[in-house]
Write a structure and sequence with these properties.
Two copies of one chain form a homodimer. By secondary structure, chain A is of the alpha/beta class. In chain A, 51% of the residues lie in helices and 16% in strands. Chain A folds into two domains: 1-125 and 293-352, Isopropylmalate Dehydrogenase, CATH 3.40.718; 129-249, 3-Layer(aba) Sandwich (Isopropylmalate Dehydrogenase).
Chain lengths: 352, 352
C-alpha cells in the first residue's frame, strides 16, 4: 500500500447512482488532490460520466462489474449471492489492502452484513454499530447505533458506549466526552432490561470514560451529552424523527414567511441570517455515518443524498484515514479493556 | 350521577402543583361553565389559592388529603402504599361514579398503574396505552403508546392499532383513519419480531380498519398516516425527540433573527406570521394524553406544563366525556372484534 490514500467507492449504490457518485467524487477530489479512488461499477455507465467530470476522471481508477445490490435485497441474499457486486468488491478492496476506506450509499443492511463478514470486528467488539454526528444546541454530538442492530443486549450497549467515546474524542475533538444511554426517563428504575443493565455496568466499572447516566429524547436536541448510546431500532427512529421534525418545521416556516406581504419583506431582509440557519441544519453537512467496530474504515452515505452530500461522506472517510482512526480505536479499546479488567478484579476484591 | 359533567383532579401532581392546577381549572371553567370539579389535595395549600381564583372556586369541591405521589415514587410503591394519595382518590372518584373523567399531571407510571387497577381495562384489551395527538405537515395525527408499556408484543400492538383507530375517528373526526406501525424501514423484512408479527396480523385480518403498513421516523412529521402505532419505549423517545428538535430549531431561529439589525427588522415585520407559526407548535395546545383502553376516562397532563397547558388537558377530558368516548370505544371494539372473529372463521375456511 502506498502512502497515498486510496478510497474505494461502491459506484452503484444510492438513488441517483452512478451520476451522483461520480460528481461527488469530483467535488471531494477538489479539496483532496492527494487522494486516489477505486470506483466499482458498470463501466458502460460510469466511463461516459467520467468524461463529463474531468476532476473525478483524473483521480479515479474504474473496476468493471455489472452486479450490484439493490435496496430490496435481503442482507443475507446480498451476502451469499453476488460475490461480484460493486458493494462487495469495494469492501474487498479494503480487506485486500488496496484501499484504506470504503464509501457506499447502498442498502444499509447489506453493507453491514458484507462489511462485517469481509472486514471482521475489532477485538472485544461483538457487533459493529452505525455512528453519526448531528447538530445540537450545544455543538455536535454523536449517536449510535443508528440501525445496524435492531435488538441489543446490555453488553452491546456497553461496547457502543466505549466505541462512541473513542469516536467523539477523535472525530469531534472532545477531551472527555460525556456518554448517555437513551431511555424513557432519567431515573434508574425506568426502561427495559438492556438499558438498565448497561447503565449498571457503566456506573460500576472503572472504565476511563465519563458516564452521565440516562438521557431522554429531548436531550438529543439539547446536546445534554456528547455521545448518545441506544439500540439500532430506537436510534434509527430517533434520528429519522428528528429529521422529519426539522423538515416539517421548515415547511411551516416557509409557509409563514410567504403568508403576507409584510412577512415576505421581513423574510427578504432576514434572508442572510435565515440562510446561515438553514446551512447549519443542512443534512448533507452530516452525511456519512461510520460503521464503527470493524477492522477497516467503512462509511455509509444516505441513499437519497446528492453529490454534495456524497462528497461529504467521502470526506468523512478520508478524515478517518488521515487521523489514523482505526489504529486509535484499536489502542483505545485495548487500553479501556485492560482498565476494565482491572475493574473486575477490583470489584471482586470489594465483594470479599 | 347528575347530568352535569364532573371532572376529578389530582391537585398535587405536576411541577407547579397545586397553584398551576387551580389556575388551570379557572381557565377551563371559563369555557365550560357547566362542568363541576372535584379537587383532591392538601386544603391548607388549595383553599388559599381558590380565594385568588374565584372562577375556579365557584365550580370546585375540594376533598382534603395530605398524601401525594411524588415523581420519584415507583409505580408499584405508589400502588401499594398511599391509598389516600390525591392521585388515587381522584381516580377512585371515577370508579365510584362521582366523576366521569380524571386529570392528573403527576407521575406517569404511578397514574398508569393505579388507573389500570382501579378502572380496569376494557373487554379485549390487555394493556392500556397512552395516546396523544400532535401536529404534522398534513394535519394532526395520533401516536400510541407514548410510554405506558416499555415492552410490547404483537398482540399489544394490534390492540393499540384498533384503539388508535377509534380515537382518531372520534377525536380527530376522521372517517377512515390510516394506521401505520413505526419501524426502521418500510419493507416487510425489517424490524423486530413484534412489529413484523403485528403487521402480518393486521394485513391478513378482516378488521374494518385501514392498515397502511410500516412507517419510519420521518413519516411522523410528514403525517403519512393518521395513527402511528409503536411500543411505549420507542413512542416516548420519538415524541420527546420531536419536541427536543422543535425546541432546538426555535433556539437557533431566534439566534438567527437577532443576529443583525437587518434580521431584527425583518423579524419585526414578519412577527405576526412567526407568532402564528409558533402558536401552531405550542406544546400546550397538544397537552393532555389519554390513557386509552380503560373503563373510565383518564387524562395525563405533562408535569412541566403551565396553567394554560393544564387547562387544555382538562378540555381533552371534558371533550371525551361530551362525545361519550368510552361508550363509542366499547361499541367499536365490540364490533371490530366481532368482525375479527369473522376473519378467523373465514381464514380457517380458506385454509380448507
Amino acid at each position: 500500500m502506498s502512502d497515498r490514500i486510496t478510497v474505494s467507492i461502491d459506484g452503484m449504490g444510492g438513488d441517483n447512482a452512478p451520476s451522483m457518485i461520480v460528481s461527488g467524487i469530483g467535488i471531494a477530489a477538489k479539496s483532496n488532490p492527494d487522494v486516489k479512488f477505486l470506483l466499482f461499477g458498470d463501466e458502460r455507465r460510469i466511463l461516459p460520466l467520467l468524461e463529463r467530470y474531468p476532476m473525478a476522471k483524473a483521480v479515479c481508477e474504474t473496476r468493471h462489474t455489472t452486479d450490484f445490490v439493490t435496496n430490496d435485497d435481503k442482507p443475507t441474499a446480498a451476502l451469499r449471492g453476488a460475490k461480484n457486486s460493486s458493494m462487495r468488491l469495494a469492501i474487498n478492496a479494503v480487506a485486500d489492502g488496496e484501499a484504506t476506506a470504503v464509501v457506499s450509499a447502498g442498502n444499509t443492511g447489506a453493507l453491514m452484513a458484507i462489511a462485517t463478514i469481509v472486514l471482521k470486528t475489532l477485538p472485544g467488539i461483538s457487533r459493529p454499530a452505525i455512528a453519526s454526528s448531528f447538530p445540537t444546541q450545544s455543538g455536535d454530538s454523536v449517536m449510535l447505533d443508528l440501525g445496524a442492530n435492531v435488538e441489543c443486549d446490555a453488553n452491546n450497549l456497553v461496547q457502543f458506549a466505549v466505541m462512541g467515546e473513542v469516536y467523539a474524542r477523535n472525530e469531534l475533538g472532545l477531551k472527555q466526552p460525556s456518554i448517555g444511554i437513551l431511555n424513557v426517563g432519567v431515573e434508574g428504575l425506568k426502561g427495559n432490561d438492556s438499558v438498565k443493565e448497561a447503565a449498571n455496568i457503566l456506573k460500576n466499572s472503572n472504565l476511563p470514560i465519563e458516564f452521565f447516566g440516562f438521557v431522554e429524547g429531548d436531550d438529543i436536541g439539547k446536546g445534554t451529552v456528547d455521545v448518545i448510546v441506544t439500540d439500532g431500532f430506537t436510534g434509527n427512529i430517533a434520528l429519522k424523527t428528528a429529521e422529519g421534525t426539522a423538515k416539517m418545521i421548515a415547511f411551516f416556516l416557509k409557509d409563514a414567511l410567504t403568508s403576507s406581504i409584510l412577512a415576505k419583506i421581513g423574510a427578504l431582509l432576514a434572508r442572510p441570517a435565515i440562510e446561515r440557519f438553514r446551512a447549519y441544519f443542512d443534512p448533507r453537512r452530516y452525511n456519512g455515518a461510520m460503521l464503527l467496530g470493524l477492522t477497516g474504515i467503512c462509511v455509509k452515505s444516505h441513499g437519497g443524498t446528492d453529490e454534495v452530500g456524497f462528497a461529504h461522506a467521502i470526506e468523512v472517510g478520508i478524515n478517518l484515514v488521515r487521523r489514523n482512526f482505526n489504529e486509535l480505536i484499536k489502542q483505545d479499546l485495548g487500553r479501556i479493556m485492560a482498565e476494565e479488567k482491572g475493574t473486575d478484579t477490583g470489584s471482586e476484591k470489594n465483594k470479599k
